[in-house]
Amino acid sequence: MTMSSPSPDPRGDPGPADDPGPGPGPPQDIGDLPGARTVDRGPEAVVRPARRWEVPVALEIASGLAWRVLLLAAAGYAILYVMGLLSAVLVPVVLAIIAASLLAPEAHALSRRWRHVPHALATALVLLAGIAIVSAVFYGVVLAFISGLPDLTTQLTASLTGIQEWLRTGPLGLNNEQFTAIGNQAIAYLQSSQATLATSALGAVGTVGELFTEMLLTLFTLIFLVYDGGLVWRFVLSGVPKAARDRADIAGRRAFASLVGYTRATVLVAAADAVTAGVGLWLIGVPLAVPLAALIFFGAFVPTLGAVVTGVVAVLVALVSGGLTDALLVVLLLVAVQNLEGYILQPLLLGRSIKLHPLAVVLPIACGLVLFGIPGALLAVPLVTVVDAGVRSLVRPSDGALDPATVNPLDPRSGRPEWHDAGPSRTSVRGLFRHRRAGS
Question: Once rounded to an integer, what is the mean pLDDT over residues 102-114?
Answer without folding.
Answer: 87
